[in-house]
Design a protein that fits this description.
Structural class: alpha/beta
Mean pLDDT: 96
Largest sheet: 7 strands, mixed
CATH class of the largest domain: Alpha Beta
Oligomer: single chain
Low-confidence stretches: none
CATH superfamily of the largest domain: Type I PLP-dependent aspartate aminotransferase-like (Major domain)
Radius of gyration: 22 Å
Strand order of the largest sheet: 1-7-6-5-4-2-3
């Protein structure tokens, strides 16, 4: 395949050579625990490609190869969830006595893992402002070993200057990890901007159908051996069935993302024009504080963003938000995103230490699915009317 092939062409062909399997278009689903060796010497030296089910199968390898091509990475592991995709590299690169800098707008389960498991294991955790950029150098200590980023930030969508952060971190010998689930490698490639590790909840857009839980971790050449060894040591691996489903989802991800992006931007602009909305938190809007970074570094936007419902009385934040959300019929009330259906959730920011919750109203996060925009607007209109009645 040509190196300058388009996104959808690449997605249609990455990760599999049909003529390796008798011409079948899709790779086979290989279920395996035991792998047989032809003789003792081969067994003792592990001198064959596959040795045990936890170390990969043709199916999981096909997915990893596809992700490597999309990420520009030296190697990828697939794991059972997005949270595992965060926790495995943390455990791979951090030891007792190390200091880690974590962006304050991080995915909430990541914060819980840091505050419980990592602290119990003797790792010092410090949260930093998502907009600190190269200023993160002032937070570096002699024992700082890892900087974790996420752009845009969970729920409030703050942008991060990944290149500036990576350059500062590398001057101090730190590994830089990034949760890139929102953008996917189609709209942002962390390793091209200096990050060492790109993390995805493939549960989201690569799956696209709200039926698979999985994660991936892709590393550059410097950190791939250590990441790979840690995954093998911990026995963390994705299943062949889930890998097959994610591969199938990848084939249409480009087309789906275009639709998600277009619909989400139309709804975001419509929300921005409403008097009952205080702010719309979407990086692709010129009004958003991180818009210039998004415009400079990203190739597109996905279907997830938030807005602040305008409420004058803080005592009615929850009541107004609940009235709006409970009225919705097309938007489901559910966690996760990236599927074909639209979702909405009330955002809880009580765990933040630096970027606190807005004072002008409750935050509501939307995932814009594949439905028609006109129908989604009608659904939201009903929600706003219910909120106004409170």
């Amino acid at each position: 395949m040509s190196a300058d092939a388009g996104v959808n062409t690449r997605l249609a062909h990455v990760g599999h050579d049909p003529f390796s399997y008798h011409g079948f278009v899709n790779p086979p689903v290989v279920h395996a625990s035991t792998v047989l060796f032809p003789d003792c010497r081969t067994m003792e030296t592990r001198a064959q490609k596959y040795t045990y089910g936890t170390r990969g199968t043709p199916t999981t390898d096909a997915l990893c190869e596809a992700l490597d091509e999309l990420e520009g990475s030296a190697g990828t592991i697939v794991v059972p969830s997005g949270l595992a995709a965060i926790s495995v590299p943390f455990l791979a690169f951090l030891s007792a006595g190390d200091h880690a800098l974590i962006v304050d707008s991080v995915y909430a389960p990541c914060r819980l893992f840091c505050n419980t498991m990592l602290r119990r294991l003797g790792v010092e955790i410090e949260y930093c402002d998502p907009e600190i950029g190269g200023g993160i150098e002032s937070l570096m200590r002699p024992n700082t070993r890892l900087v974790h980023t996420e752009a845009p930030g969970s729920n409030t969508m703050e942008m991060q200057d990944i290149r500036a952060i990576s350059e500062a971190a590398h001057r101090h010998g730190c590994v830089v990890t990034m949760d890139n689930t929102w953008a996917t490698p189609l709209y942002f490639r962390p390793l091209d901007f200096g990050a060492d590790i790109s993390i995805h909840a493939t549960t989201k857009y690569p799956s696209g159908h709200s039926d698979i839980i999985m994660g991936s971790v892709s590393a550059n050449a410097k950190y791939w051996p250590q990441l790979h060894d840690a995954a093998i040591t911990m026995g963390i691996c994705g299943s062949p069935d889930d890998s097959y489903q994610i591969l199938r989802g990848l084939r249409t991800m480009g087309v789906r993302l275009e639709h998600h992006q277009k619909s989400a931007l139309e709804i975001a602009r419509w929300l921005e024009s409403r008097d009952d909305v205080a702010r719309v938190l979407h990086p692709a809007l010129p009004s958003f504080p991180g818009h210039e970074i998004w415009k400079r570094d990203f190739k597109g936007a996905s279907g997830v963003f938030s807005f602040v419902l305008k409420v004058d009385d803080a005592g009615r934040f929850s009541k107004k938000a609940h009235a709006l959300l409970d009225t919705l019929a097309l938007f489901g009330l559910g966690y996760s995103w990236g599927g074909y259906e639209s979702l909405a959730v009330p955002v809880n920011l009580s765990d933040r230490t630096i970027r606190k919750a807005p004072l002008d109203g409750p935050v509501i996060r939307l995932q814009i699915g594949l439905e028609d925009v006109a129908d989604l607007k009608k659904d939201l209109e009903a929600g706003f009317a219910a909120a106004a009645a409170i």
